[in-house]
Amino acid sequence: MRRIAERGGAVALGFMPQNKSSGLQLLRAGAMAATTAYVSTPAGWNDGLPGELKPCVLTSSLIEELFRRVNRRAQRGLRFTYPDIGEFSGQFLERPHPVEVLADAKGGYFILERLSQAMNLLAVLPADGDARAPGQHLIDAAQLAADQNSKLLSYASNEHAIAEAVAAGLVAKPGFITVTIANVQALSAAVSNALEVGAATSTCLAMLRAFHVENGDRM
């Protein structure tokens, strides 16, 4: 907390399974938490429907569109944004393992990292106007992994997406997003409002309730 405050930061964020000792230590130290989930497909999972995701050639124009959509997500809730294409690419595309971009029939994009024994879903970027429930995107990605005899790994902070994924037979391991206030003055500046400690706590709790995070954001 001291190092974050020295660098001008306001809060520390944490992401961990609920049974992780580091998370319990953060909670004891005063962190606030919201429930999330690590989502995966169990062995042999298959919903019986053919996958509809098709691979894309990663052109400069497609990278620009992916960058636009990642930052556009913030219009629908509290999310991470990226200041330029370089920052976006460094987070989502230039990773230790090969990255693939696939498209669905409605013009939505899925960014996946191919691990040795699983496919890691980094982000789902629906087309403008796609009103499908967020859990359906997790199911689409799970079917892609099943079609390739692989396992899907993902992370979800949207409770409706988690519930839909579980209803479809995916496994959700409970997790936490935690937030710990490092500097009340910096938090006040970030929200353009002078905060007392109690109000700062309320602000952070409201942030957790509105926060949406995907796998690529937090790694």
Detailed description of the structure:
The chain has 219 residues and is an alpha+beta fold. Helices cover 37% and strands 24% of the residues. The chain is built from 9 helices and 8 strands. An 8-stranded mixed beta sheet has the order 1-8-2-7-6-5-4-3, with helices on both faces. Strand 5 and strand 6 (119-125) form a beta hairpin. Helix 5 packs across helix 6 (159-167). The radius of gyration is 18 Å and the shape is globular. The two termini are 20 Å apart.
Sheet with the most strands: spatial strand order: 1-8-2-7-6-5-4-3
Provide the gyration radius in Å. 18 Å
Q: What percentage of the residues does DSSP assign to strands (E)? A: 15-25%
How far do the termini sit from each other? Answer: 20 Å
User: Biggest β-sheet, characterized?
Assistant: 8 strands, mixed
Give the arrangement of secondary structure elements.
Layout lengths: L1 H5 L4 E7 L3 H8 L3 E9 L13 E2 L4 H13 L12 H8 L6 E5 L5 E6 L4 E7 L8 H14 L4 E5 L2 H9 L3 E11 L2 H7 L6 H14 L4 H4 L1
Parallel strand pairs: 6-7
Antiparallel strand pairs: 1-8, 2-7, 2-8, 3-4, 4-5, 5-6
List its salient traits.
219 residues; alpha+beta; eight-stranded mixed beta sheet; 9 helices; globular
Summarize the entry for a quick read:
The protein is built from nine helices and eight strands.
